[in-house]
Design brief:
Strand order of the largest sheet of chain B: 2-1-3-4-8-7-9
Distance between the termini of chain A: 37 Å
Number of domains of chain A: 4
Radius of gyration of chain B: 21 Å
Helix content of chain B: 25-40%
CATH class of the largest domain in chain A: Alpha Beta
Largest interface: A-B, 74 and 62 residues
Number of strands of chain A: 23
Strand order of the largest sheet of chain A: 3-4-2-5-6-7
CATH topology of the largest domain in chain A: Pyruvate-ferredoxin Oxidoreductase, domain 3
Shape of chain A: globular
Oligomer: heterodimer
CATH topology of the largest domain in chain B: Rossmann fold
Order of helices and strands of chain B: HHEEHEHHEEEHEHEHEHH
Helix content of chain A: 25-40%
CATH superfamily of the largest domain in chain A: Pyruvate-ferredoxin oxidoreductase, PFOR, domain III
CATH architecture of the largest domain in chain A: 3-Layer(aba) Sandwich
Structural class of chain B: alpha/beta
């Protein structure tokens, strides 16, 4: 907690009230304790209070049981990452305490359940320990039948008290959350909350109050990356899709399945990943760009079909919510190791568009951008997100839905003539006419995965293959020329440029700010458009002595992560080097800076 | 949906329906299927843009190139899910899927079962020649035991799939067998399949003269065989009877083994949607989405 103003006078029998700018709260327990919902409440409260918020969570890949954490960072100013260190750790069990105590800032608060946790003697000086019989008091408050249930809401009450949070608003959120359930459920939850809020934190000498956040022009909404992406897909006008369940992608398909009927759309749960992508491609051929999605292993299964869509030049939206790999890997952890399969996972020369959103808000707008690129260039577009961005909660400005929502209904108006693969088209960009379109010439197109002539009929001509391969390539080169040049975060010239993509943007930006405060000349750059890359990156790189590509993946056989290898291949610049890690956890700001430092040492 | 002005358009001629010259070998059974598909489209007065022809990979799957209409030549084994996509999103079209035994029962076997159980409203015609033809004589999932191929030079050893039984047990609502050597019967099966609402599956025995000559002679009267039509006494709604009838090894009986009426995938989805559409009636799409965003405030 960064104290930013003088503490209030200590009034007798009343805890000291400190004004704070931000706080990182880590709640550790087991997956069935409802830890995610405490985090969810805090995040939504922050959004309503116009505070910035970012969360981070891990859940075990088992159905029930297993350690789980939820971390929430609340701030009156801008939040870039979920935080390196916790100001407060709430530990439900001994393992929660043991595994996360090192994550607490020196002098931080550890709030623990005395029914389950025995705090370490040697740490009494380092942290402020506050014991509370959370389990037994919860049972007392809501009755014994609710074994282990309601503990989370009790804990929420404690946190609300400690941070002087708006309890009326929290009560409102609790009531909303249990809307539609029997009234007794809401009452029980409220009782648990009041019990926690009213608990005399006698050992708590200090409570905290957030500074008033800067007033915003727009209303805030709070959601996860997966939700933002799914709603973006709806806003983009997509009305058909298909998928097979896989973590952490499934949230998106569940949301689309639930919402699409309101728009008279259909989301099909397919028998497997290959069927899913095929159904989506079939629907896209019907004239309206459709969506499929998955996580790593599922994307591998879809690869042949995506190659067909490249060859047949059919628009398609593919979402890859990356997780730890290869194979089944670490289903509930984060990794950025699918860049290669996204960009190069096709057999044959099959260039495709890959975009990586870098925040929850960006997920929403990227969906719309991706659909528009898919339609304009008549090609599959892959959106690469990851477990971290998919599950974290952020607050962002309410989108102007009236403005961004679009209608992409098929155009079935009659044509005089139509060549689906017209080689004389500008930049090789052609669009299909969907079945149902009357073509007056009587010549109808076939869409195909065989090399074909301009009408889509098979051709084994070497010249045709050369020309058609060039067509499929040049349209993506044209896209590359149209993409906006990314903006450097920090000065455009200096010693080190850290380059990242996707969910690491926040950590890299925070690292940039922290480094600059101590006088280090570091800037950062997020590349959203992974394939094709935008033009002009070389100009940006020329402003720096070192270009370090920080990724959440392995350094691979030759010392470069996946984006790093792509950038080196394109720019042949030795100063482009990789900073990688494969622990399947998000990058901490401190670790980024330490690694930059040691990389600079290596380069001396 | 279509903006086509319905000026008097004459039914299409065979010439107008034909596109590329078929690449099949002389004597291939697939020629009959193509000719009778044209006949079906002509009889039904379907215009070019009112239907979609979809296929996977294999000799028979070259089909869409030979038809002058909107067509898709998709990847091996996945024609059914591709066709599902077009069939659920464009219910104004008649969707026909063509393929071979490898496509349907081997690489695409999973999709066959699921398309059947979901009762997706489309017509699926499998041209079954009991051999892999395009790759030049390997064992197919319907090759009989003992069939000598390049992958079973001593004769096939694995039990072949029984397409009729598999379709029935998977939940197909129209299951029929026909043969390329009886055009009249083939056309009548195609017509019945097209008229059927739901997943209509036809297995058309289609001889590969190159790699499995004479495979179905025992059902061809011109080759001294007998064309055994399913008796009029057979009740096609009787699942057990249909299953029993299919016990007879290929070529077996010809006609409709099984046909029942069950709501299609499209019907069931529309039923779900109708409940939601009542609530969103008169709302713009962005207003529906705004409701979600308001909840996230």
């Amino acid at each position: 907690m960064s104290d930013s103003s003088t503490a209030d006078e200590v009034v007798s029998e009343k805890p000291k009230v400190s004004k704070i700018h931000e706080a990182v709260i880590r709640i550790a327990g087991n997956s069935q304790d409802g830890i995610q919902s405490i985090g969810g409440f805090l995040a939504r409260l922050a959004g309503r209070s116009e505070q910035e918020v970012m969360t981070f969570m891990t859940i075990p890949s088992t159905i029930s049981g297993g350690p789980s954490i939820f971390q929430v960072r609340l701030s009156s100013g801008e939040v870039l990452s979920s935080g390196d260190e916790a100001d407060v750790l709430m530990a439900f069990y001994q393992h929660s305490y043991d595994n996360h105590v090192d994550f607490v800032k020196e002098g931080g608060v550890i709030l623990y359940d005395t029914s389950h946790v025995e705090p370490r003697e040697d740490l009494q000086e380092k942290f402020r320990h506050i014991g509370c019989p959370i389990s037994s008091l919860t049972v007392e408050a809501i009755g014994g039948t609710a074994k282990d249930k309601g503990k989370n809401i009790f804990a929420l009450g404690l946190v609300a008290r400690m941070f002087d949070l708006d309890s009326t608003r929290i009560e409102g959120l609790i009531t909303e959350r249990f809307k539609g359930k029997p009234e007794s459920v809401t009452e029980t939850a409220l009782s648990a909350f009041h019990a926690g809020h009213g608990y005399p934190l006698t050992t708590l000498a200090e409570i905290y109050e957030f500074e008033d956040p800067k007033a915003r022009d727009t209303e805030q909404v709070v959601c996860t990356g997966n939700e933002a992406l799914a709603y973006g897909i709806l806003a983009a006008g997509v009305r058909y899709g298909a998928a097979y369940p896989i973590t952490p992608w499934s949230d998106i398909m569940e949301l689309l399945r639930r919402e699409l009927p309101k728009y008279n759309g259909i989301f099909v749960q397919a028998e497997d990943e290959i069927a899913a992508v095929s159904i989506a491609i079939g629907a896209s051929w019907g004239g309206r760009c459709a969506v499929t999605g998955s996580s790593g292993p599922g994307i591998a299964l879809k690869s042949e079909a995506i190659g067909w869509a490249v060859m047949a030049e059919i628009p398609l939206l593919v979402i890859d919510v990356q997780r730890g790999g290869p194979s089944t890997g670490m289903p509930t952890n984060v990794e950025q190791s699918d860049l290669n399969i996204a960009c190069f996972g096709g057999h044959g020369d099959s260039p495709r568009v890959v975009i990586a959103p870098s925040s929850v808000e960006d997920c929403f707008y990227t969906a719309i951008e991706a659909v528009n690129i898919a339609r304009k260039y008549s090609t599959p577009v892959i959106i690469l997100t990851d477990q971290a961005i998919a599950t974290r909660i952020e607050a962002f400005g309410m989108p102007n839905l009236k403005e961004v929502c679009q209608d992409i209904s098929p155009d079935l108006s009659p044509r005089d003539d139509h060549k689906p693969y017209d080689l004389s088209s500008a930049d090789g960009i052609t669009q299909h006419v969907a079945p149902g379109t009357f073509i007056k010439s009587g010549k109808y197109p076939v869409v195909t995965g065989l090399e074909h002539n301009e009408m889509g009929h098979p051709s084994g001509s070497p010249k045709m293959h050369t020309d058609m391969t060039a067509k499929r390539r040049s349209k993506l080169q044209a896209l590359g020329r149209e993409l906006p040049k990314p903006e450097v975060f920090g000065p455009e010239e200096g010693n080190v440029l850290m380059v990242g993509w996707g969910s690491t943007q926040g950590s890299l930006r925070e690292a940039t700010e922290r480094a600059r405060k101590t006088g280090d000349s570091i800037s950062s750059l997020t590349i959203r458009h992974i394939n094709p890359l935008p033009e002009g990156l070389e100009d940006i790189f020329s402003g720096f002595n070192h270009v370090f590509v920080v990724e959440n993946n392995d350094e691979n056989l030759y010392g470069y992560g996946q984006l790093c290898a792509l950038l080196r291949a394109r720019y042949c610049d030795k100063k482009i080097q990789g900073i990688n890690k494969a622990d399947a956890l998000t990058w901490r700001v401190k670790d980024v800076l330490d690694r930059v430092k040691s990389k600079l040492e290596e380069n001396k | 949906m279509s903006a086509t002005a319905e000026v008097e358009r004459k039914p299409l001629t065979k010439k107008e329906l034909a596109a590329d010259k078929p690449t099949w070998c002389p004597g291939c059974g697939d020629f009959s299927v193509l000719a009778l598909y044209f006949k079906l489209l002509q009889n039904r007065g379907l215009h070019h843009e009112k239907f979609a022809t979809v296929a996977g990979i294999g000799c028979s799957s070259r089909f869409p190139y030979f038809v002058q209409a909107h067509g898709a030549h998709y990847i091996h084994g996945r024609a059914l899910p591709f066709a599902t996509g077009i069939a659920v999103s464009r219910q104004d079209l008649d969707v026909f899927v063509f393929g071979g035994d490898g496509d349907a029962f081997s690489i695409g076997g999973n999709h066959f079962n699921h398309c059947a159980r979901k009762n997706v409203n489309l017509t699926y015609c499998v041209m079954d020649n009991n051999v892999y033809g395009l790759t030049k004589k390997q064992t197919s999932p319907t090759s009989p035991i003992g069939f000598k191929s390049k992958t079973d030079m001593w004769g096939a050893i694995d039990k072949p799939i029984n397409p009729m039984q598999q379709a029935i047990s998977a939940g197909a609502t129209f299951v029929a067998r026909t043969t390329h050597t009886n055009p009249k019967h083939l056309l009548s099966m195609m017509e019945a399949a097209m008229d059927h609402k739901g997943f209509a599956f036809i297995e058309c025995l289609s001889e590969c003269t190159e790699f499995y000559d004479g495979a179905f002679d025992s059902s061809n009267p011109r080759k001294g065989g007998e064309f055994k039509e399913i008796s009029e006494d057979h009740d096609p709604t009787d699942e057990n009877a249909a299953y029993a009838l299919a016990e007879e090894l290929v070529p077996g009986y010809f006609g409709v083994y099984y046909q029942i009426s069950r709501p299609t995938k499209q019907d069931k989805e529309a039923e779900v949607n109708s409940k939601f559409l009542e609530k969103t009636k008169g709302m713009e799409d962005w207003e529906i989405l705004q409701q979600n965003f308001n909840k996230m405030k």
